[in-house]
Amino acid sequence: MSKRVIVIGAGFAGLSAATSLADKGFDVTILEKNSQAGGRARMFEQDGFRFDMGPSWYWMPDVFETYFGRFGKKTSDYYNLVRLDPSYTVVFGANDAVDLPAGVENIQAVFEQMEPGASRRLLEFLEQAAYKYDVGINQFVWKPSRRVSEFMSLKLLQDVMRLDVFQSFSSHVRKYFTNERLLQLMEFPILFLGATPANTPAMYSLMNYAEITMGTWYPMGGMHEIVKAMVKLAEEKGVKILLNHPVKQISVTNGIANKVETYQGTFEADVVVAGADYQHVDSKLLTPGYQNYDDRYWKSRVMAPSSLLFYLGVDRRVPRLQHHNLFFDEDFGLHAHEIYEKPQWPTKPLFYVSAPSKTDPGVAPAGMENLFILIPVAPDLNDPEETREYYYNLVMDRLEAYVGETIRDHVVFKRSYAHSNFIADYNAFRGNAYGLANTLRQTAILKPGLKSKRVNNLFYTGQLTVPGPGVPPSLISGLVVAEEVTKEFGQRA
Ligand SMILES: Cc1cc2nc3c(=O)[nH]c(=O)nc-3n(C[C@H](O)[C@H](O)[C@H](O)COP(=O)(O)OP(=O)(O)OC[C@H]3O[C@@H](n4cnc5c(N)ncnc54)[C@H](O)[C@@H]3O)c2cc1C
């Protein structure tokens, strides 16, 4: 008889772990709290608009191909990818914006205009970043990071030195470029990792490599198409997905998790894989004595920012916007200070506007625009309606000044989303949006571990454990944990 695995949570990591385990012969059931799979990448439809609720940037297409390829499939079996050109626009002021085109040569031309010699230095930068991408994405992120010895081979140790883990991204990039705007462009992908460039290891220039050489993509229909594809594949492999099944407890007897309890019933398990937020599972679903970490540990973690989001349906097109628009028209230093050093609602935040209807007519009624606005903010803030409204008007003033027309008067649908929604919907620790920041002290074996220290058959996956936040790392996290479960609990290798 197949061993029974209960996976908690149908986010990217839970779906990935479940599919891989079912493929290896386990009998897998996912228990998902919400009425829809996808976790932070859920979607909703309203008045003819289709909104992706979380991720909007499709980077590292190779990782998605690797994922589906594991099961003999291709992304094109499920969804249609288009490459965006320009990849994105950076707004420096109402009359001042730079489009980042697709293709290295085109980007070189933009760089050269901003700083003489920068096109050649970009190639030098990409050469070292290519090595980091190769070692980082093809080797390091696949390590379960359970033991230091995993990293002890001479080759990997040499690689660690070449990866620049002990140098900050901020000082690394300044060896190549001096123009402030150019530096901002290069530092932007690092913000995805949830820490400032000064606190992020230079190893993550692999993000620039991915973005510049592999491009920015979009799955037609929206990012949730990835979730739909993963659900379909999971079900093809025999995974049972039970929606509206919030887990309330993991029952442990003599160090073995043998039952998972929901409000709808109890599920017996030989192995449990927790894909819900790590801190929630560790602190709330286990009885004291079986927890990996105490409150002090969790309080001392550096979280990636949370977000204040707005989903807007606009009853006309907004010509000046591109698909991805980054508003870098205020001081990043002050905003970062108000996220990390002195957490508070930001004085003059940077923000991001996505308009997927620029690429995809299916996500808005004809002649209308689908807008998603994201303001990165510190975790753990109160988010009352008045505060949300204040920021809505603050970013709208800047957005309207940039596009040169009123948008507010044409908003026919509006929904906001912030900390309290992340907590209510995902049991998110401190209302986090993207998990833990990728600082040096929260990398690899220094992250919350993927296996419980006290419950022998309990594993963790997802953005709070290895390898980290983001859609590609969450997919990898699920595959890595499935390998570890298989090593210890058998079924087909
Ligand atoms: C606003 C936003 C924008 C983002 N933008 C990008 C982007 O552009 N590109 C990118 O690559 N990444 C992006 N990310 C990050 C990316 O979305 C996440 O890293 C990834 O989705 C995390 O997946 P996960 O499976 O670890 O967690 P989740 O998606 O949170 O999945 C966990 C699941 O567990 C469920 N759950 C929680 N508690 C319980 C319980 N008690 N019982 C049962 N189920 C439970 C939740 O409902 C959820 O479905 C973004 C994230 C956010 C929030």
Automatic annotation (TrEMBL):
MF terms (GO), sorted A to Z: oxidoreductase activity
SUPFAM superfamilies linked to this entry: FAD/NAD(P)-binding domain
Domain Amine oxidase: 12-485
One Pfam family here: Amino_oxidase
Pathway assigned in UniProt: Carotenoid biosynthesis
Keywords per UniProt: Carotenoid biosynthesis, Oxidoreductase
Cross-referenced Gene3D superfamilies: FAD/NAD(P)-binding domain
Oxidoreductase recorded as keyword: yes
Gene Ontology biological-process annotations: carotenoid biosynthetic process
Record family assignment: Belongs to the carotenoid/retinoid oxidoreductase family.
PANTHER family: PHYTOENE DESATURASE
Name of the featured protein: Phytoene desaturase
